[in-house]
């Protein structure tokens, strides 16, 4: 440490010019060289360094300004997207409500048309049953009439003579012909 201090002290006591030699003290010469280089760099490089720093400062400020503009644009686009999202959500809700209403309306229409169809089928069934009952009643009447007629003819045949028998047959044929015309 003493050598470093001595080299600074000896700077003020340089021998007069005329002798030129090498200073072998590495610490003293490095500090002198370093101080000379730093001094030259500061003196000549001050302008270049300040220009570089000013340029860097301007680039940083421009980047910040551009970032702010981009952020404002992004915020604006985000607000527009949110507004569109709200609008789409409202439309979706409206479609959902309309869809449910349409489903309910279709369900009631289907229920009503099914009820009408069932009612018509019930009416057709009742008409068919009534028709079949009437047909069965008519068949039973005809059979009863046939049996009664055969029984009456059998009783008449055994009780009547030929002439009375022929008159009765003619009268019955007339009655049957009149009945046939009525049923047709």
TrEMBL record:
<comment type="function">
    <text>Component of the F(0) channel, it forms part of the peripheral stalk, linking F(1) to F(0).</text>
</comment>
<dbReference type="Pfam" id="PF00430">
    <property type="entry name" value="ATP-synt_B"/>
</dbReference>
<feature type="coiled-coil region">
    <location>
        <begin position="64"/>
        <end position="98"/>
    </location>
</feature>
<keyword id="KW-0175">Coiled coil</keyword>
<keyword id="KW-0375">Hydrogen ion transport</keyword>
<comment type="function">
    <text>F(1)F(0) ATP synthase produces ATP from ADP in the presence of a proton or sodium gradient. F-type ATPases consist of two structural domains, F(1) containing the extramembraneous catalytic core and F(0) containing the membrane proton channel, linked together by a central stalk and a peripheral stalk. During catalysis, ATP synthesis in the catalytic domain of F(1) is coupled via a rotary mechanism of the central stalk subunits to proton translocation.</text>
</comment>
<comment type="subunit">
    <text>F-type ATPases have 2 components, F(1) - the catalytic core - and F(0) - the membrane proton channel. F(1) has five subunits: alpha(3), beta(3), gamma(1), delta(1), epsilon(1). F(0) has four main subunits: a(1), b(1), b'(1) and c(10-14). The alpha and beta chains form an alternating ring which encloses part of the gamma chain. F(1) is attached to F(0) by a central stalk formed by the gamma and epsilon chains, while a peripheral stalk is formed by the delta, b and b' chains.</text>
</comment>
<keyword id="KW-0138">CF(0)</keyword>
<keyword id="KW-0406">Ion transport</keyword>
<dbReference type="GO" id="GO:0046933">
    <property type="term" value="F:proton-transporting ATP synthase activity, rotational mechanism"/>
</dbReference>
<keyword id="KW-0812">Transmembrane</keyword>
<dbReference type="InterPro" id="IPR002146">
    <property type="entry name" value="ATP_synth_b/b'su_bac/chlpt"/>
</dbReference>
<dbReference type="GO" id="GO:0009535">
    <property type="term" value="C:chloroplast thylakoid membrane"/>
</dbReference>
<keyword id="KW-1133">Transmembrane helix</keyword>
<dbReference type="GO" id="GO:0045259">
    <property type="term" value="C:proton-transporting ATP synthase complex"/>
</dbReference>
<keyword id="KW-0066">ATP synthesis</keyword>
<protein>
    <recommendedName>
        <fullName>ATP synthase subunit b, chloroplastic</fullName>
    </recommendedName>
</protein>
<keyword id="KW-0150">Chloroplast</keyword>
<keyword id="KW-0934">Plastid</keyword>
<feature type="transmembrane region" description="Helical">
    <location>
        <begin position="26"/>
        <end position="49"/>
    </location>
</feature>
<keyword id="KW-0793">Thylakoid</keyword>
<comment type="similarity">
    <text>Belongs to the ATPase B chain family.</text>
</comment>
<keyword id="KW-0472">Membrane</keyword>
<keyword id="KW-0813">Transport</keyword>
């Amino acid at each position: 440490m003493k050598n470093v201090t001595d080299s600074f002290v000896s700077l003020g006591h340089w021998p007069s010019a005329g002798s030129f030699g090498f200073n072998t003290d590495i610490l003293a010469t490095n500090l002198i060289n370093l101080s000379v280089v730093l001094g030259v760099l500061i003196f000549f490089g001050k302008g270049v360094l300040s220009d570089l720093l000013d340029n860097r400062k301007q680039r940083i400020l421009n980047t910040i300004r551009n970032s702010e503009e981009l952020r404002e644009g992004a915020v604006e686009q985000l607000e527009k997207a949110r507004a569109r999202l709200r609008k789409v959500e409202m439309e979706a809700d409206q479609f959902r409500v309309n869809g449910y209403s349409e489903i309910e309306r279709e369900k009631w229409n289907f229920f009503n048309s099914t009820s009408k169809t069932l009612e018509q089928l019930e009416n057709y069934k009742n008409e068919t049953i009534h028709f079949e009952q009437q047909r069965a009643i008519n068949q039973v009447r005809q059979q009863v009439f046939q049996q009664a007629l055969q029984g009456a003819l059998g009783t008449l045949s055994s009780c009547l003579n030929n002439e009375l028998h022929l008159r009765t047959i003619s009268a019955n044929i007339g009655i049957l012909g009149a009945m046939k015309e009525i049923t047709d």
